[in-house]
Amino acid sequence: MIPVAIVDDGEADRYLVKRRLARSGKFGELIEFVSGDRFLEEFFDGTPSAYSRSEPLLILMDINMPGRDGFETIEEFSARLAASHRPDNTLILMYTSSLNSKDQQRAREFGVIKGYLEKPMRNNSVDFILGLYNDHCAA
User: Fold this and answer.
1) What is the pLDDT of residue 47?
2) Residue pair 93/118 in contact by the 8 Å Cβ criterion
């Protein structure tokens, strides 16, 4: 089962992701965060079980959130991961309502971002995620 963290301030968006992923039967525990800061705090200072498993953690990151946005969160995440000398056992996808081509280009420029999903999550989004996840695990 694929462990998942969703970082999104929108309750309805988190709910929809949870329902779509649960229907596939391939995703396990889904941990929800309402902000980038909360995610960083929990990932680096907490000990949730999803972070200690051997399977890569799938992270769905919203761009537009109050406080630290998704890109800032990913920058900080990458810096802290490098400083802690922890292995990067994650697959990060942007999950956003932004259709801005600059956001899409910026996501492509981040080496750690492996995909870009537009809200709302659709059935074919799950297939897209599974394909990326399987490719990531095979690499």
Assistant:
1) 60
2) no
